[in-house]
């Protein structure tokens, strides 16, 4: 099984990919067509293989037959991919091309509609989750603010001997610790200096 995996990786994918690169580099139309036919047949083979592996993996020499099939597709002597493409794939796709295109357009439209629908639902769920988190967070915020207000209330000193309102301690920064002259005081000194 491991041998089959590496054989298929090398001969079924890497080798054709390298020669496809060379065809693109050389801009040879015949090589383009040859490797495009191979990749179409290989894609169909890979799709079919997904199902046949489930049901036929018990068959004797199943993996060896798959390696031989890939080698037959690649061989410049047998030209297996060109033969399968010209005899079966091209005529089938040509006769069904209109129906396939219509199905692809419908699938594209449905997938776009489904994407928009699920996108809207996702946004609604996200908005609901955000509102719920905000409301829970608001409760925590209000509790936090209550604790701050209780702490601030503890800094208020009530003067039981005086009948006036209690004094409040105000914390100021070091820059603001020096009293600034009021505007009226500075005007008074300024006007007295002129006299």
What can you tell me about this protein's structure?
Belongs to the DP1 family. One of its GO terms (cellular component) is endoplasmic reticulum membrane. GO terms for molecular function: microtubule binding; olfactory receptor binding. Keywords: Membrane, Transmembrane, Transmembrane helix. This protein has helices spanning 2-26, 29-56, 62-74, 80-154, 183-194, and strands at residues 156-157, 167-168. The chain has 195 residues and is an all-alpha fold. It has a domain at 1-116. It has a two-stranded antiparallel ribbon with strand order 1-2. Helix 1 (2-26) runs antiparallel to helix 2, helix 1 runs parallel beside helix 3 (62-74) and helix 2 packs antiparallel against helix 3. The N and C termini lie far apart (111 Å).
Topology:
Blueprint: H1 2-26, H2 29-56, H3 62-74, H4 80-154, E1 156-157, E2 167-168, H5 183-194
Antiparallel strand pairs: 1-2
Helix pairs in contact: 1-2, 1-3, 2-3, 2-4
GO molecular function: microtubule binding; olfactory receptor binding
Protein name: Receptor expression-enhancing protein
Organism: Centropus unirufus
Query: Quaternary state, please?
Result: single chain
- In whole angstroms, the N-to-C terminal distance is 111 Å
Write the element-wise H/E pattern from the N-terminal end onward.
Answer: HHHHEEH
The description of the largest β-sheet is: 2 strands, antiparallel
Global Rg:
41 Å
What is the molecular shape? elongated
Q: Kindly report the spatial arrangement of strands forming the biggest sheet.
A: 1-2
Number of strands: 2
What integer is the average pLDDT?
Answer: 74
Q: What share of residues is helical?
A: over 70%
- Uncertain ranges: 172-177, 184-188, 190-195
Q: In percent, how much strand structure appears in the residues? A: under 5%
Number of helices: 5
What structural class do helix, strand and pairing data support?
mainly alpha
